[in-house]
């Protein structure tokens, strides 16, 4: 007989975990503080099914991300959710980037990703307006409606007897010998086990449960532009730069969205609120939480130049466009229109190291997912299996 499990967070990882546990015979209740699921990282990302190209071989991101590229595609197709496997290019725009591009190709091959090095001329067969000295073609990258995936996960969960309770902000977590009690602003829930998939607030819930996690969530806002329709012909699919290997962000890129529009971005700048989707959104508690974590200051000392570049790009559309023109030089001066922003929940070690893999902490009867940024949406069905395995071996 299965146990009773409470899952905090109705983003894509929380819903996928709840459905996996329900399918294994557990009774699952999802608690979500928002009035609808998928309102934060899930609903504000670029909608890309990542292939597993970038990640250190043997890491959770590599193994679960690569498997997730297949399982997410199948789930979307099986549930009538828009998905298109369009492939992508990662382009070196200068010979100095070739060693990093070749290392990326090596990682992709080690991770079992269908990728190949191609010439500048071959790159133009896929993207006629791209600037490249060489490129990697990744055939398994696609785009998907992640909000639609969330709706399908919720539908299956509820049909299987699970429950999603909205407007339930958790304010207390108490662990007992035989159960876990979760208190919200309006109700109290009791279960055999608890899973924390609260994303931007996951470290706070861990502390609320009595853990002392060795990481802190630091929010990074990623701002996007959209190409004006008359400029969208310049991009056929997905065009990415060669990323900085020391930084877990992919650089501003051009992405065809599920509605046919072309999004450009995101950058990555320190956000003044964990739900800070605009420059003017400031949450003093969130700022204080970040500033008193020594890892943020150590990160700043190491990457101050990168941070300055990102901040400048945030304040200057001209600088943002200049970055994109490295990929597609013919982008017109007036081609960018501001669109939505997302906030990445990035876990940061005390010593200033960014957590570069999926990361979770365990306690009796509890699993706390403390770092699940990109490619977590892609890998969500696989992450769910791993969380369920952890609970069942507890």
Describe this structure as you would to a colleague.
With about 400 residues, the protein is of the alpha+beta class. The chain folds into two domains: about 5-45 and about 145-215 and about 355-390, FAD/NAD(P)-binding domain; about 90-140 and about 215-350, D-Amino Acid Oxidase, Chain A, domain 2 (2-Layer Sandwich). It contains eleven helices and 21 strands. Strands 5, 6, 7, 14, 15, 16, 17, 18 and 19 form a nine-stranded mixed sheet that branches. It has a six-stranded mixed sheet with strand order 9-2-1-13-21-20, sandwiched between helices. A three-stranded antiparallel sheet has the order 3-8-4. Strand 10 and strand 11 form a beta hairpin. Helix 1 (about 10-25) packs parallel to helix 5 (about 145-160), helix 1 (about 10-25) crosses helix 11 and helix 2 (about 60-80) packs across helix 11 (about 375-390). The longest helix is centred in the N-terminal third of the chain and has 19 residues, at about 60-80. The two termini are about 15 Å apart.
